[in-house]
Amino acid sequence: MKSTGDFYNVPEGTGDFYNVPAENNFIYRLGEECRSASEDTYGKNTTATVEEVARAFHKNPETIRAGLKQGRFPWGYAIETSDDRWSYIINRRRFEETEGIVLS
Predict the structure, then answer these.
(1) Of the candidates 57, 60, 89, 100, which lies 20 to 30 Å from 2 by C-alpha distance?
(2) CA-CA distance, 92 to 64, in Å (whole number)?
């Protein structure tokens, strides 16, 4: 990979995306300069928070967290990072397309 300022160029290869270590917080599309994994090509945030989704559903955030842990939602998931610690990933675009709700 060759650094070009805040972005990286990834050599041509097979597949659509390469994930790199979390400490870099980048995802690369082959042959393109890409931004942080939390932004799409238009600069819009591609992840949503549990709190945003809870507000949209008029539910308690713990309800959303429970559903993510149980794998109930097609637009997000939960990862157990250590004993009693969880990380929640919600794909904003998939949420908006699936639920028909645009998050602000």
Answers:
(1) 89
(2) 14
48 and 58 Cβ atoms separated by less than 8 Å:
no
**Is the distance from CB of 88 to CB of 66 less than 8 angstroms?**
no
Q: Fill in the DSSP letter of residue 81.
A: E
> Where a domain ends, among 45, 60, 76?
45
59 and 92 co-located in one domain: yes
Output the pTM of the full model: 0.59
pLDDT per residue over 26-35, tens digit each?
Answer: 444 444 444 4
CA distance 65 to 43: 26
Structure tokens at 48: 């949503």
Q: Is the dihedral of CA 70, 75, 76, 77 positive or negative?
A: positive
